[in-house]
Amino acid sequence: MTEDNLYLLFCYLIYGVTLLFLTIKSKNRIKVLSINLTILIIYSSYFLYNLKNNSQGGSGLLWLVGLISIIGIHWLTNLIGIFIDRTQKSKSISNLSALISILLVTTSCNKSTPAGFWKDYHKEKITNNISDQGPSGGHRNIIWKSKALQTFNSKDIIEFATKNGWTFIDSNYISTDTIKSVTQDENMSIEYWEDILRTDVLPKWKAHRVLVLKFKTGWIAVEPGNLKETEINGFATLNADKTVLNIYHKWGE
């Protein structure tokens, strides 16, 4: 048995003991037990599936932490229920526990990984979602496409990003057909966020004039070798007619 499995086993054992006490305390024992076990099975199945099948690039660590966190919140909610004397309040706590768990399952996929919240932005228009998250760094690249002109606008993008913890820095238009001549100048002294923009973001556009929105994301990107680092590591790029949106986020080394 691996160390990770031991951690999970310990969490489930602690949760099971707490649920047992809560069930014994409640008059509605069958209801309390069935609700909590159903919710436990739902979110455990979801996270365990992703631990097994979506752990490339070290992202398994994030799924593991997410599962342990949800078990912990579920456990804490039930623990509060144990110390409530009135049966009606105990029932309310149990129902609240179920509600909290459901909400956590539906959001944790997007919140537990860097820049994961962008998967909730115009979901139906996402055409590409690449995520490579490791224990010491990673990146996410999401592309949206629409046939309708002006589908995406900078104001809406900035509001959504700010709502989810990103900080808008500035924006400007860049012609990507000039990127090669600029990057080949070895005498240029540039910030690391410019390196990311020029090597990882703009080349995807292939001779377009794009609007670039730059953000601080709460994560730090470090150049291999620790030569440079930057807090500006989230980029939204839009084409001229606002039918294509590209989000790129890089963190760690």
Keywords:
6 strands, 2 domains, six-stranded antiparallel sheet
Q: Which series of helices and strands comes N to C?
A: HHHHEEHEHHEEE
Structural class: alpha+beta
Strand order of the largest sheet: 1-2-6-5-4-3
Number of domains: 2
User: How much is the average pLDDT?
Assistant: 80
Rg: 23 Å
Contiguous low-pLDDT stretches (5 residues minimum) are 85-91, 180-188
User: How far is the first residue's CA from the last residue's CA?
Assistant: 31 Å
What does this entry look like structurally?
With 253 residues, the protein is α+β, with helices and mostly antiparallel strands. The chain contains 7 helices and 6 strands. The protein has a 6-stranded antiparallel sheet, sandwiched between helices. Strand 4 and strand 5 form a beta hairpin. The radius of gyration is 23 Å and the shape is elongated. The relative contact order is 0.11.
